[in-house]
Amino acid sequence: MPSYDTNLRAATAGDGTQAVIDTAIRSAAPAELTPGKVYVVQTPNGAQQFDLTGDQYKALPSRKTGTTTVRDAKSFLALWGKHSDAASEIYSDADRLAITAVLNASASDTADWGDHRIRLELRETEAWKAWASNDGKLMGQEDFAEFIEDHLPEILKPAAADMLEIAQSIQGTVKAEFASGTRLSTGQRQLAYTETVTAKAGQKGTLTIPETFTVGLLPFEGLTGGYSIDARLRYRIDGPGLKLAYKLDRPADARAKAFADVIGQVAADIDHPILNGTPTGAPLIRQPGECIAVTVDQAPIEPGSDPQIRGPNRLTWCAPPGPGNQPGRLLWVYPGHRDPCPHPHHADHQCTTRRPPAAAPPAANTLF
User: Fold this and answer.
1) Is the peptide bond between 312 and the residue preceding it cis, with omega within 30 degrees of 0?
2) Own/partner pairs, 323-331, CB within 8 angstroms, 24+ separation
3) b/e map of 189-219 (b: 16 or more CB within 10 Å)?
4) Above 60 in pLDDT, residue 4?
5) What is the pLDDT of residues 257-303, one digit of tens each?
6) Using CA atoms, how far apart are residues 87 and 272, in angstroms rounded to an integer?
7) Phi, then psi, of 258 in degrees rounded to 5
8) 10 Å Cβ neighbour count for 125?
């Protein structure tokens, strides 16, 4: 590389020569540069380097990069078959319900970049979310009956017609006063009530409900077979009225079994071992800024987990799409941020290197 006399400007400033040099430089015809090379150009402000070796100056990128997120095993296997090689690696993470393939992983004798990945992130079905969100929640008679009617397709036992009849019976006794409940030899519950509506005032009756019922649910989108879960029916006589609830029997086991089945589906079609854990060197998203530069983990966090993740030294960020569905600028997720938010959220990247402890805990009146 040629050297330049850094004292040239000082030596020529007094006799006007520098002004002539500056004028000549500015009036010089533009020169065409060749992509793929690094140039050093002398300017009025000194030597400047122009690096034209980046992929943006090439017809095609020099290598594959980026992380593609898919939602089912079939899509994961399709991309794996297209891009994997002998050194590719696969990791399963039961905590995050994710399977990650590092397509350009390092081999035993050669290093590679590890930044071309496939990430299978399972998404819960609407039916699973509905049953899980109401698990153990006491509801009024009308609300409970409507929930059962809306979700009859997921109820396996008793038969849908029987459960519909039970729901209608629950709705028909909304105005009744319930006095007691007994357990029958069949395992069902019988609730005694007295009508309070004018036309039937004083009439007594009983409402029989099952002690347990069984639902068939798909925990995640893309699965083909359902998982049976028993539910125990609970009630509470609340003053003159009645509140009902159901309690799912170990739904986490069904969720874990479904994830294990997805892993099995992937393992059956590949000849690489599936490692239990997460790959090192997780890809990052970097956003420069005049006031603050942001570096976050590329993998999004679980929806709704922002309060558990953020802290005095860690923020979470919303990633709305930009123009043309391209990535937009990261936006800070402040405590009053839209909830629920339709966009993925990312957390500040934290290096695994041990750091010294903070000098003092945050004040009690901080945002976190």
Assistant:
1) no
2) 327/285, 329/287, 330/285, 330/287, 330/294, 330/296
3) bebbbebeeeeeeeeeeebebbeebebebbb
4) no
5) 999 999 999 999 999 999 999 888 666 777 877 667 888 887 788 88
6) 9
7) -65, -40
8) 17
Please report which residue ranges of the chain form alpha helices under DSSP H: 8-12, 17-27, 73-83, 126-133, 141-150, 160-172, 251-267, 306-309
Tokens of 122: 């399972």
Strand 177-183 to strand 98-102: parallel, antiparallel, or no bridges (unpaired)? unpaired
Both structure tokens of 278: 């997460």
* 98 neighbors 122 (Cβ within 8 angstroms): yes
Residue 206: closest CA among 186, 184, 187: 184
The residue ranges of every structural domain in the chain are 8-57, 66-121+257-276, 137-249, 284-347
Which residue type does 363 have?
A
